[in-house]
């Protein structure tokens, strides 16, 4: 592994996966954490004898790509959340990809209509509640998070975090701006503490009695169940898939796009097609607890135990279109305090 500061202030590492006489290379810029994608990268490199250079970043990808322009070494871009994928496309930093394999393996609602981005995994935005303090069935929908019954009982991330922004954007799509803002203000009024921490932190806060109910991405809970230190916190809550009696549970994606000026386009396409294949999709499911986008892939044991659920079929492009308004809404209601 090599360490380089290529994206100022935001790079974690540059990982080189290679063979002694690799047939070529492909360069990846990634917002996804190393632990979540390294096994797939290793498997691809071993199968195709192609060096994979990965830059792991927490922020700054769009700005870096814009500053590099046509000289950018980036071939494939990995990110989480429909919003960030949409931002990259709207900034002119991606290119369309024609691939029968990608079209076959990735459902149409999980890929861009113009083939600029492709979903790799999906995640449910679930509600979790204390086993000891919240009776099962007490909360069944996102709308109920704003119910005064839950005043002082809810923990969330920042209202400006992409995951919360996407959920608010979905509420705008379903209920319109006025009702969505009323809802977000109601959730704010029910907060047990100032929005903070990450999704695992919300589960820990329930375990520690700081709150009774939280909103998280499902796969964080799966990862906690597999971690001996975090399992007690994960065991202290139960899972609610919201809105099963109407539209279904809000879904978001992790995804990929080919960089506009990809210098290794053929190898980039090979990597993208591999990540949508049965082998890589099974790794995403088994190792990360994510929902694969390709149909017919078995889920991990911990995720299977939660059972089937109805998923919101709302087009992710519609969610992306409401993101800017959702972010402004969080400011207007002073969600973060």
The total domain count is: 2
Shape by Cα distribution: globular
Give the topology string: H per helix, E per strand. EEHEHEHEHEEHHHEHHEEHHEHHH
Calculate the terminal CA-CA distance, rounded to whole Å. 41 Å
Number of helices: 14
CATH superfamily of the largest domain: Periplasmic binding protein-like II
SSE-based structural type: alpha+beta
Low-confidence stretches: 1-21
Please give the number of β-strands.
11
Largest sheet: 11 strands, mixed
CATH topology of the largest domain: D-Maltodextrin-Binding Protein, domain 2
Radius of gyration: 20 Å
Overall mean pLDDT stands at 93
Helix content: 25-40%
Going by CATH, the architecture of the largest domain would be 3-Layer(aba) Sandwich
Explain this structure to me?
The longest helix is centred in the first third of the chain and has 15 residues, at 34-48. Strands 1, 2, 3, 4, 5, 6, 7, 8, 9, 10 and 11 form an eleven-stranded mixed beta sheet that branches. It contains 14 helices and eleven strands. Helix 1 links the parallel strand 2 and strand 3. 38% of the residues lie in helices and 19% in strands. It folds into two domains: 24-122 and 251-298, 3-Layer(aba) Sandwich (D-Maltodextrin-Binding Protein, domain 2), CATH 3.40.190.10; 125-250 and 310-332, D-Maltodextrin-Binding Protein, domain 2.
């Amino acid at each position: 592994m090599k360490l380089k500061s290529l994206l100022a202030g935001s790079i974690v590492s540059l990982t080189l996966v290679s063979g002694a006489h690799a047939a070529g290379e492909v360069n990846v810029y990634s917002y996804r954490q190393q632990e979540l994608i390294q096994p797939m990268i290793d498997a691809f490199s071993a199968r195709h004898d192609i060096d994979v250079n990965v830059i792991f970043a927490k922020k700054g990808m769009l700005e870096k790509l814009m500053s590099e322009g046509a000289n950018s070494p980036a071939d494939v871009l990995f990110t989480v959340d429909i919003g960030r994928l949409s931002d990259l496309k709207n900034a002119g930093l991606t290119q369309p990809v024609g691939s029968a394999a990608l079209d076959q393996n990735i459902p149409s609602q999980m890929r861009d209509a113009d083939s600029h981005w492709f979903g790799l995994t999906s995640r449910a935005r679930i509600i979790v509640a204390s086993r000891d303090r919240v009776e099962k069935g007490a909360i069944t929908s996102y709308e109920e998070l704003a119910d005064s019954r839950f005043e002082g009982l809810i923990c969330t991330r920042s209202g400006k975090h992409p995951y919360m922004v996407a959920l608010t954007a979905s509420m705008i799509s379903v209920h319109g701006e006025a009702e969505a803002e009323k809802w977000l203000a109601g959730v704010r009024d029910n907060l047990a503490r100032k929005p903070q921490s990450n999704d695992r932190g919300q589960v820990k806060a329930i375990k520690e009695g700081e709150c009774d109910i939280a909103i998280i991405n499902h796969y964080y809970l799966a990862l906690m169940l597999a971690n001996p230190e975090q399992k007690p916190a994960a065991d202290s809550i139960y899972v609610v898939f919201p809105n099963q009696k109407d539209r279904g549970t809000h879904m978001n994606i992790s995804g990929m796009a080919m960089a506009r000026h990809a210098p290794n386009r053929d190898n980039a396409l090979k990597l993208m097609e591999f990540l949508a294949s049965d082998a890589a999709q099974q790794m995403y499911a088994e190792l990360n607890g994510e929902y694969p986008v390709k149909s017919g892939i078995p889920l991990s044991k911990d995720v299977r135990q939660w059972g089937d659920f109805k998923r919101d079929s709302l087009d992710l492009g519609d969610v992306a279109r409401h993101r800017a308004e959702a972010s402004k809404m969080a400011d207007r209601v002073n969600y973060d305090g």
